[in-house]
Amino acid sequence: MIDYSRMLNSAVQEIKPSGIRKFFDIASSMDDVISLGVGEPDFQTPWQIRKAGITSLERGRTKYSANKGIDVLCNEISDYLHRKYALKYNPTNEILVTVGGSEAIDAAIRALVAPGDEVIIPQPSYVCYEPITLLAGGVPVIIETKAENDFKITPEELKAVITDKTKLLILPYPCNPTGAILEKADLTAISEVLKNTNIAVISDEIYSELTYGDAKHISPASIDGMWERTITVNGFSKAFSMTGWRLGYACGPRELMAQIIKIHQYAIMCAPTTSQYAAIEALRNCDDAVENMHNEYDRRRRLIVKGFNDLGLTCREPKGAFYAFPSIKSTGLSSDEFCEKLLKEKRVAVVPGTAFGKGGEGFIRASYCYSPEHIIKALERIKEFLNEL
Amino acid sequence: MRTEILKLLCRNAHYTPAEIGAMLGKSETEIKAEIERLEKEGIIRGYKAVVDWDKLDDAYVSAIVQLNVIPKAELGFEDVAERVMSFHEVESVYLMSGSYDLNVVVKGKTLQDIAKFVARELATIDSVTSTVTNFVMRRYKELDTGLCDPEDDCRGNFLL
Q1: Strands A248-251 and A95-98
Q2: DSSP three-state, residue A66
Q3: What is the ipTM of this complex?
Q4: Are residues A306 and B22, on separate chains, in Cβ contact within 8 Å?
Q5: Are strands A200-204 and A166-171 parallel, antiparallel or unpaired?
Q6: Can you say how many angstroms the Cα of residue A293 is from the centroid of all Cα atoms in its chain?
Q7: Which residues in chain B are contacts of A303 at CB distance < 8 A?
């Protein structure tokens, strides 16, 4: 008899499975469920990008690419980051094309974190940072960001948790699920705290194209004192609606990139060649398409935020990404209870804030990567639900 | 703002002023007032549902009739266009460049009804020199709306 628990790595087994998997399995077995749960664009990948991918297949570009990515693509990424976010990365040795931003984060964490190293993670935030840190033998140090600070990590919160074991700070902005962004002043203050330390930063900027109003995305690496310690992670999934293409990139000082690329080489070889060719087209010719999608998200953002506030579920204005994070504290229910009851009684699926960290208790995440009609219908059902509570 | 309101109404005429206001960051009152102005100025001429009649028993058929016209002195094509427009069987009238002058979409209960209408009412108009009737076999897309059933939302990864 095989004892699988002894066969398996104990660190993996200790990672808790997603609590909401069960919840969404139930949701998908029900009829007529209106979901506000996914975190994926509803738009098609712009046709010209798909066409570039198709053309590359017709031409037989189906072999491995260079480990670090196709040269032309690395050049385009370098130009794009310079043009948009005033970042300077040498395409020869400071840019790595990865299988989504996900691989970039995984490889970067594994390159930086040794067993016992502390990794500071602001929460509520995307769920991958903690498990990947644990798998690398690292120690997650969670900062519970506060609603009154718009869920931004503050320099005081940061200072309070830095120890001599701190190796890495994760900056996930614009943030899933809170929609928070960091402005120049916030980043400058953080840079001050990190000055004279050897602490690295991974900036997960996958939502960089989706900031709204006057808020413009500022890349942490563009701030004084940050470039030398930061791995900038971004990709094509959200901005260009290329989630299934699995394409992203990591950029940073060559000393760090040289080590990250080792992990990439052995684990992945190269990112999908077809996706890389499509991505070249995306960066060169799709500013208009990105802007149209951005404006559509903006309209929906206003619609859903006003909708929740009108229902008495206080929703601070998210400045980035495509999620609303309203508080459900006024109902007296916990996040889990609210979501379960809402699903059972009104067949609306939203994600409990606790899925993203303890600080998400009392909140729910509702995505607005859905048509306005879909959002309006969901809000109507939530209104009925609240009236019947 | 006008263009944005119009684009939204063209997408879905059912959006309420409150919903449009929410999407554009304006008040319901502002939007209501602007829509009224647009209607008064004759910029918004109507609101129509997009219906897939083929799904019903009393479906109707339509035809694109191409008219060649001798334009009248001073009036040009106005006279004929007005005359053609006035028929309730006529769904739309456009003045065209190219090989014919007026593009007329005609609807009727049957192909014969349409043929009779064209022969009796359009071909007989004084300045109309020729008619070519093309029957619509199947409608795929109308007014920016696909008439096929929508695909299911296949997104399933809830954690991202």
Answers
A1: antiparallel
A2: coil
A3: 0.88
A4: yes
A5: parallel
A6: 18
A7: 19, 22-23
d(CA A112, CA A108): 6
Torsion of CA B152, B154, B156, B160, to 10 degrees: -120
Alpha-carbon gap, residue A282 to B4, rounded angstroms:
26
Coil, helix or strand at residue A323: strand
CA distance B120 to chain A (A): 45
Q: Does the beta-carbon distance from A303 to B25 stay under 8 Å? A: no
If we measure between CA atoms, which residue out of B81, B6, B1 comes closest to residue B43? Answer: B6
Distance CA B140, CA B54 (A): 11
pLDDT in tens, B35-59: 999 999 999 999 999 999 888 887 8
Does B15 sit within 8 Å of A20, measured CB to CB?
no
Q: What is the DSSP string of B90-159?
A: EEEEEE-SSS-SEEEEEEESSHHHHHHHIIIIITTSTTEEEEEEEE-----EETTEE-SPPPP-----TT
**How many residues would you count in chain A?**
389
A151-168 pLDDT, tens digit per residue, is 999 999 999 999 999 999
Nearest to A73 by CA among A52, A45, A55: A52
Tokens of A379: 């809000």
